[in-house]
Amino acid sequence: MPLPPITVGNLPHAEDSSVSDATRVVISVGTPAVTYTCTLGQVITMLKLLKADAALTQDLDAGGQHIVNLSQSTDSGSAVPYGQLVSYVNGRLVGVQVISGSIDCSTNPNYPAASKGNGYYVSVAGKIGGASGTVVQKDDLIVALADNAGGTQAAVGGSWTVAQGNLIAGIDYLTPAQIAAAYAPISVIYNAGNISGAVTLDRANGDKQNATATGNVTLNVSNGSDFSSLELWIVASGADRTLDKNTAVKLSGDSGVSFPVTLPSGTGATVLFKKHGALWYLVTLVKNNPTA
What we know:
This protein is 12% helix and 37% strand. By secondary structure, it is mostly beta strands.
């Protein structure tokens, strides 16, 4: 397209030492001519731009006007049209979480229509997705996993998830009694039943056992590891009973216990065994004989 005729008037004399880019001149553009008053520096810039091979060497002042009819940008060095920029930004924002507000779930509302990434805080606890929806607590965050038109749990529940915000509400507290019971020592007593004759107590049945002697008894102990212990409570039934130990069970040198021991009918004794290495030792025997 041919350039319009341009006439520059009011030019200063070339030898005028006061001439600068700020010197004001008058130009006439086109036919019929339109006259503009501008600086000499602006005229020089305009003339450079009108050259087909001209490149900007300073900032371009558009004077508050728009640059229009830009082509689509294909590289990092090109100006980007507004529409292309908006399209790019919108594409990058798809699925980004956006807090869209809050929902009072006390009336069990349906899910709202939403785009992927939209989120709503629960302001009042209840259900979301209708009467058969998901239970939510205050401060939970309901987030859309996919674009959806909103509705019941059955219709669009798969397009939503709930992030628990009120963690305290999800904790079940123990009462003092429950805590005491949980930390109470566990003591399970194994009942060996009626015993008579040669009897081997199995440590695998527990460290506390009881038995009723219906005849004279000779005691042995099996299993258990080093430093294991076994406490036996034995009661004589029907008549006086003698209580002896198997030769495999040893006595400590200072035990002071001699065998056999007689238990009067209806009385009992507590016998404590401890294992050291491969041997079981009878450590103490305490008779419970109120009449003695």
